[in-house]
UniProtKB/TrEMBL annotation:
Descriptive protein name: Delta-1-pyrroline-5-carboxylate synthase
Main subcellular location: mitochondrion
Organism: Phaetusa simplex
Top-rank lineage group of the source organism: Eukaryota
Function as written in the Swiss-Prot or TrEMBL entry: Bifunctional enzyme that converts glutamate to glutamate 5-semialdehyde, an intermediate in the biosynthesis of proline, ornithine and arginine.
Family: In the N-terminal section; belongs to the glutamate 5-kinase family.
Length: 758
């Protein structure tokens, strides 16, 4: 037996057609029947007198959107007392002002005292107005709403319970949104509450239990409880160490300290948790979230239903491993321990990982075979992605070579002094390299990315969170296991974490307190999505790889077809593959132009004609839909330009600042191109495919950045470092350097320590 208010009732719910509650947030999008509970703090204004109309309108819009998707929505609302208080205060002020005017001839409203308003009277005065407001708002979305007022006795009496249940089911069947509230006009008087500034609000605590009760009675899939806090914290919100609990499990309440209640209402977080756990026990999933925050209230309900990480999700299924927040903290601590190692120790870890890639080759390829077989059987991956997913003996050997290059070049990467200045006598300043912190690398269909990025993170002393695509799950698992085995060599196993939870990428991008830099490795769509989703975390990468090759009038016949073939056909799915071929107008209808076209046809490259190129042809290939297209396959666009200047202008207008090439024997023209093209990589008489960390001698890369801040181009160890300033003094204070002080600034540049070049 549990209690709703002071009335006992049996906690055994009616049999549920859909069984247990959802185990993961990602399943919430399947919720059909949803109860949204609006606390007084959500519905009322900050002055507790009247309704927060903007907030309420936003909530109605979200509920209407979900209702029109075919879901069955119910609202448990507070607010009648606050609305009634506003109306009664207005009537009292009006009455007092009339009496004062009659007695004194003056209207001294500022001296009037507002009497304490009885809550039931406020509820009686506010219920009709609150419902009229809901009806007016829902009408804007062609949705009908119906009011249901309940009291404790409606749940105490079995017949009344069945009547209530039948009424709600009939309303839902007719696509009507039931709006449920306790009938505060007739409930017993509550205990006085001095914090309520003239009115005792009695509905919030009851409405928490009411919402849970209704959710279970109606076999609801999801209960959303909106309050004025982000969710459940491990200590009172506002305290220094308070952390939002993402997922709350039954039994965890013993480890939680509850703070004070909200600014209005008699309920608090403890009451909400008890109600939520009871609903969870009855088979209803629960999320407690903030419905008052101006930045999220406009989409908080829809975000929850879409499975986004909002508020606290109550689940009965506890994952076997750590949460992503815990993994982030482990990576932070592990990264700091890694940075504290000697350079030789970090290099030993990378050498060990390189050895493991070759020693455990058979196990790696077996795991990769499972991924390939599953991907092919499901038929979800395009051929270019299948190629990226595939590992081979030669790929593993190349990986091992690249890792050894990283180890050899990382000896003095962390803690290297890049500037020394003598500020004054005995006051020396140094700028030294340090790790960025914790990196989040998100990659698709690229299991070879895992050891590459891990080695770069180890060499630069960064903690690392890895989120791979599920299509490479088996490969990623064994490669991460080998990485942790190598890290165990010096006791820093936790520095590299593989996120295996069902965490959405968008949710990971919101962990701004745990992650310092996001590096996406995948399609242009993935990069764009991450750049859009990242909240306060910088993203290193490029959204597109629209690479150009410009063939000048002075180009060598022998070089042209060779460079173009390599740029386009060697690996067309790569981000550094040729996508647009620019040809000088004077080369049209020449043997060189014919050789280029013949070579592309032999290589089965589909040609799209740019607007100018199409105008020169009687029968042209299909005209390109956009000159900003990254094909990622054996396709390319050909366009005609009149000069090197026009080629540069075209690249700036339609390119992605990735990699662009000129083929010419004219050094002056080449230098103009090299100096004026504003891309991360600009080449002369060389394939676009050289734009790669391994080919640049960086050992490997975490990606190619087209950003103009920090790292640009292929990003190796140097791009994963930042700096800090070290100042060593001897009782120095700024006042000594004032106009009449005893010390003078020197600002002398000092020689740098000799680098270890071995």
């Amino acid at each position: 037996v549990r209690y709703w208010s002071n009335i006992p009732f049996i906690t055994m719910p009616l049999s549920r057609a859909h069984g247990k509650s959802f185990a993961h947030r990602s399943e919430l999008k399947h919720a059909k029947r949803i109860v949204v509970k609006l606390g007084s703090a959500v519905v009322t204004r900050g002055d507790e007198c009247g309704l927060a109309l903007g907030r309420l309108a936003s909530i109605v819009e979200q509920v209407s959107m979900l209702q029109n998707q075919g879901r069955e929505m119910m609202i448990v609302t507070s607010g009648a007392v606050a609305f009634g208080k506003q109306r009664l205060r207005h009537e009292i002020l009006l009455s007092q002002s009339v009496r004062q005017a009659l007695h004194s001839g003056q209207n001294q409203l500022k001296d009037m005292a507002i009497p304490v308003l009885e809550a039931r009277a406020c509820a009686a005065a506010g219920q009709s107005g609150l419902m009229a407001l809901y009806e007016a708002m829902f009408t804007q979305y062609s949705i009908c709403a119906a009011q249901i007022l309940v009291t404790n006795l409606d749940f105490h009496d079995e017949q009344k319970r069945r009547n209530l249940n039948g009424t709600l089911h009939e309303l839902l069947r007719m696509n009507i949104v039931p709006i449920i509230n306790t009938n505060d006009a007739v409930v017993p008087p509550p205990e006085p509450n001095s914090d309520l500034q003239g009115v005792n609000v009695i509905s919030v605590k009851d409405n928490d239990s009411l919402a849970a009760r209704l959710a279970v009675e109606m076999k609801t899939d999801l209960l959303i409880v909106l309050s004025d806090v982000e969710g459940l914290f491990d200590s009172p919100p506002g305290s220094d160490d308070a952390k939002l609990i993402d997922i709350f499990y039954p039994g965890d309440q013993q480890s939680v300290t509850f703070g004070t209640k909200s600014r209005v209402g008699m309920g608090g977080m403890e009451a909400k948790v008890k109600a939520a756990l009871w609903a969870l026990q009855g088979g209803t999933s629960v999320v407690i979230a903030n419905g008052t925050h101006p930045k999220i209230s406009g989409h908080v309900i829809t975000d929850i239903v879409e499975g986004k990480k909002v508020g606290t999700f109550f689940s009965e299924v506890k994952p076997a491993g750590p949460t992503v927040e815990q993994q982030g903290e482990m990576a932070r601590a592990g990264g700091r321990a890694l940075a504290a190692l000697q350079p030789e120790q970090r290099a030993e870890i990378i050498y060990r990982l390189a050895d493991l890639l070759t020693d455990q080759r058979e196990e790696i390829l077996l795991a990769n075979k499972k991924d390939l077989e599953e991907a092919e059987s499901k038929g979800r991956l395009a051929l270019p992605l299948l190629k990226r997913l595939s590992l081979s003996t030669s790929k593993l050997n190349s990986l091992a070579i690249g890792l050894r290059q990283i180890a050899a070049s990382s000896q003095d990467s962390v803690g290297r002094v890049i500037r020394r200045t003598r500020i004054a006598k005995d006051l020396d300043l140094e700028q030294v390299t340090v790790p960025i912190g914790v990196l989040l690398v998100i990659f698709e269909s690229r299991p070879d990315c895992l050891p590459q990025v891990s080695a770069l993170a180890i060499a630069s002393g960064n903690g690392l969170l890895l989120k791979g695509g599920k299509e490479a799950a088996h490969s990623n698992q064994i490669l991460h296991h080998l990485t942790q085995e190598a890290l165990s060599l010096h006791g820093v196993k936790d520095a590299v974490q593989l996120v295996n939870t069902r965490e959405e990428v968008e949710d990971l991008c919101r962990l701004d307190k745990l992650i310092d830099l996001i590096i996406p490795r995948g399609s242009s769509q993935l990069v764009r999505n991450i750049q859009k989703a990242a909240k306060g975390i910088p993203v290193m990468g490029h959204s597109e790889g629209i690479c150009h090759v410009y063939v000048d009038t002075d180009a060598s016949v022998e070089k042209v077809t060779r460079i173009i073939r390599d740029s386009k056909c060697e690996y067309p799915a790569a981000c550094n593959a040729l996508e647009t071929l620019l040809i000088h107008r004077d080369l049209l209808r020449t043997p060189l132009f014919d050789q280029i076209i013949d070579m592309l046809r032999v290589e089965q490259v589909k040609i799209h004609a740019g607007p100018k190129f199409a105008s020169y042809l009687t029968f042209s290939p299909s005209e390109v839909k956009s000159l900003r297209t990254e094909y990622g396959d054996l396709e390319c666009c050909i366009e005609v330009v009149d000069s090197v200047q026009e080629a540069v202008e075209h690249i700036h207008k339609y390119g992605s600042s990735h990699t662009d090439v000129i083929i010419t024997e004219n050094e002056k023209t080449a230098e103009f191109f090299l100096q004026h093209v504003d891309s991360a990589c600009v080449f002369w008489n060389a394939s676009t495919r050289f734009s790669d960390g391994y080919r640049f001698g960086l050992g490997a890369e975490v990606g190619i950045s087209t950003s103009r801040i920090h790292a640009r181009g292929p990003v190796g160890i140097e791009g994963l470092l930042t700096t800090k300033w070290l100042l060593r003094g001897d009782n120095h204070v700024v006042s000594d350097f004032s106009e009449h002080g005893s010390m003078k600034y020197l600002h002398e540049s000092l020689p740098l320590p000799q680098r270890n070049t071995n």
